[in-house]
């Protein structure tokens, strides 16, 4: 999980404060030393660490902490507020042009995920009712155009291309003109990256900027390269005056130094974060929510956002009716699993829950393959078997196991879980919409 290492070290530093009823300046100084080491080990820029510690220390030796009955909580509060401020304070949204199309120029080094995140971002805004167009402006990297076309096809978003024999500046100009002509209200230009920053790359990007006057210039930065990501961001910002950052591969970065350093060094906000390989794994960046995650306070608001995005109101009404009439089938069971999986990676979701013990979760892995096997077993059943699982005898179980690549034991386990759920639903169905009934539904066991 992101910031896992930093979160653990900060939690250990806070233990020093919790062990004392009252704090002295010496206690604060010793605790700040541990916080400083935690930040440096998380690959946070040393200038950022120095200023952060100075600000937190100054506040921590004030009367609000030293004279407080609960000084440890006050220090956690201060660190939370300063982490939020360090990462930008509040969400920075993508600027939408007053006159369409909104032109977003994607820049960054090769391998940072620029092409994929151009598609992710276009897909995100398509869900919000926009008409995006992807423009293939990387004519140098082999198969870059094809990659963008594959991404566009998966998301059902058109891709404008002129091949790899036309200059990227001309492609960008023609792409924006095409969008204006066809009524696309957002344009995402995928530009060429390099393995390292060079003058030719920067000059080309500056020429594209001058030609199309983009609404936004978003730099994609690989979070996992740590301190180097800050240097990349600083260089791109100096030469292009970027408007924001997309921090990619944050789900694989347990340190989090880039997220804590980029805003401070460049003065430009992180606007989005990539949280996985799938094309829907992109999130708006909320500094306050990220600070809460770092400090182990959870991220309920993002969890709610994900639930609402996956929630199908009509399906929920139909489900309530099925529970009331006791006609819940294995097809309905499968539909509920699909709703759960729409919310994203289960380990990340657990990490957003307040009060979850980091150490308890450290070696715990939520086996999402169990969900896949369950889906395979249900898909291997006939309609009659999914509707009336009581007819599934030994020979049917063997056929289902063979068809789904599982074992008869797996099929038995699934049927037992489903039967337990039905028994609970029978009790629940007579309780209407009472609080007790809802609590019972919440305790139903899902197969993961």
Can you identify the CATH superfamily of the largest domain?
P-loop containing nucleotide triphosphate hydrolases
| Cα end-to-end separation | 19 Å
Proportion of beta-strand residues: 5-15%
Number of domains as seen in the coordinates = 3
Question: Please, what is the average pLDDT?
Answer: 80
Strand order of the largest sheet: 3-2-4-1-5-6-7-8
CATH topology of the largest domain: Rossmann fold
| Helix-strand makeup class | alpha/beta
CATH class of the largest domain: Alpha Beta
Give the overall shape, derived from the CA principal axes.
flat
The biggest beta sheet reads: 8 strands, mixed
Cα-based radius of gyration, to the nearest Å: 26 Å
Q: What proportion of the residues is helical, as a percent range?
A: 55-70%
The counted number of beta strands is 8
Uncertain runs are 353-358, 360-364, 431-448
CATH architecture of the largest domain: 3-Layer(aba) Sandwich
Tally of contiguous helical segments: 22
Characterization of this structure:
This protein is 58% helix and 9% strand. It is α/β, with parallel strands linked by helices. The chain folds into three domains: 4-86, Four Helix Bundle (Hemerythrin (Met), subunit A); 102-296, Rossmann fold; 305-442, 434 Repressor (Amino-terminal Domain) (Orthogonal Bundle). α11 links the parallel β6 and β7 (270-274). α2 (25-41) packs antiparallel against α3 (46-60) and α5 (71-86) crosses α12 (287-294). It is flat, with a radius of gyration of 26 Å. The protein starts with a helix and ends in a 6-residue tail after the last helix.
